[in-house]
Amino acid sequence: MAGEPVYYKEVTMIETENLTKVFKIKKGEDIPAVVGLTLSVTEGEVFGFLGPNGAGKTTTVRMLTSLIGATSGSARVNGFVVGEEDQEIRRSVGILTESPGLYERLSASKNLEIYANLYDVDDVDKQVGKYLQMLGLWSRRDDLVGSFSKGMRQKLSIARSLLHEPRLLFLDEPTSNLDPESARLVRLFIEDLRSQGRTIFMCTHNLNEADQLCDRIGIIRTQLITVDTPTNLRRKIFGRKVVFHLREINPGWSSLISSLAGVQEVECVDQKLVVALEDPEMTNPQIIRILVEGGADVQFVGELRHPLEDIYLQTMREPERKAENL
Amino acid sequence: MNHILTIIDKEWAEVFKNKMVLFTMIFLPLTFTALPLVMLFITNQAMGDITSTSMADVPVEFLAVCGSNMTGGECMQIYIINQFLLLFMMVPVIIPVTIAAYSIVGEKTTHSLEPLLATPLTTTELLAGKCLAAGLPAIIVGWISFGLFLLGLPILGVSRAVISYIISPTWLLAILIGGPLMAVASVNFAIYISSRVSDPRVAEQISALLIVPILGLMFAQIAGVIVVNVIVMLSFIGGMILFDIGMIYLGATIFQRETILTRWK
Predict the structure, then answer these.
(1) A118–B115: do the CB atoms touch at under 8 Å?
(2) Under a CB-based contact definition with an 8 Å cutoff, are residues B177 and B88 in contact?
(3) Looking at chain B, which residue has its C-alpha nearest residue A145?
(4) How close does chain A come to B14, measured CA to CA in Å?
(5) Do A234 and A306 contact (CB within 8 A), yes or no?
(6) pLDDT in tens, A133-167
(7) Are strands A223-228 and A199-203 parallel, antiparallel or unpaired?
(8) Percent helix, strand and coil across chain A, each rounded to 5?
(9) Which residue from A83, A115, A211, B81 has the least number of CB within 10 angstroms?
(10) Is the confidence metric ipTM above 0.85 for this complex?
(11) Which of A232, A288, A240, A236 is nearest to A260 (CA)?
(12) Which chain B residues are Cβ-neighbours of A103 within 8 angstroms?
């Protein structure tokens, strides 16, 4: 059917509606862990779930993987209804729990073999071998997991979560407590999984990692504060700023640039002009023209990129600021 | 079934890696086998010709058990040996308790429970796997232990009448059915405790209380309050079947995945 357009239907892998979890500690003492969570994650997306300790990230993962039930609200995972089709959900998703939880007295291959059987994998030996090789653990397959480094254990847990080839993966702090080299290896592997079209829901404290790996991020503190792509969040919070590095700076240029349409703010910092713009793609050429015509030596131009940490901290402070203003 | 076998395989692979666990599994039944044999050997030595011992020395309750074709010495030996019947029944109760008590809370403390519960494994499969993994070796060891005891009897020169009594329905019912039923109860109780506490030591200590009713039975028999015969044993087996069904149902009903994962009281 050459020449006919191909339409790809966007498949929703995770969909939650007002998902809420309240833990009952004592009679009359309730602790809300997650309140009114509404979000959706589409197929092939890497979704980062950020928030401080106790914000409800792990509770959300546990609800979505049918490990614990929700107090109210609803959720669908991989098309299955949480709370009604829990076995199907468990069968179809992979999970990397916060702690590896491996059997230390058993070998790496035995650990994987057990899980391959529990996930009803057809060719256990083949799958176990495939992931041991893929994660560089083949030569240590017969060694007891107790003798493994943290990085190796983490890799083995990732292998465990992939044995049944799930299309949707939940990764809870995949690089926590790992040395930089191991963390990098795990990140590369996650990128590899993304390139295979798998959907990944990842809880992390590592903001650089989220920035690097995630298509969208959600920030939670019991309630979902915001969800968007890292780029859009930057724009929402800090706007778009362009830095013009100049050999020398003339204060007059600042007022000339300010008069242009779409320029929100101009700042002189050392030998740089920092310009807040609505649409840099439209306004940058005009600014450069003004500068060059004014005799400026423009050394280079770049968009100011705030680290995700700034976005995160700003977002976390926002509710407090709002509360103070009330 | 595949899931149950996987859990059994996993439990055995882990437990039998620990040589001390293996040692206690072998040492205790061997002791329980040796004790009655030693007692029989001593009585044989002390009484000399047991066929000449008078029936007057035998407790009254035992005369009915012994029957008319036995001598006083043989009846005395049966009286002594009967005290060890409960000891043999205790083997499959004591051995799996520590393994079963550790089974859930141990996985919880090593954080391996969460990934395990995230698999398509059902609660029934998990509990059945854990129960069989702890109970089966103990039941088999109990039977082997009794087999060794039987082999030792003729070697020690125990009379045919006494051996016939030991391989009578009362003993066989006790060892082949009663013991395993008690093992099922003890394993289920220990797993139940293991799923309710957050410290393996607490689970093991509480599960050890299981021994109390068995000791009670033992002392009742020594004191002559009860005499184990076929009717007593059949009643006991019937009661144990009902008790086991109740324990299995209770264990599966009370096992709350969420509570186990999230509560650390």
Answers:
(1) no
(2) no
(3) B14
(4) 6
(5) yes
(6) 988 899 999 999 999 988 889 999 999 999 999 99
(7) unpaired
(8) 40, 30, 30
(9) A83
(10) no
(11) A288
(12) 10, 13-14, 112
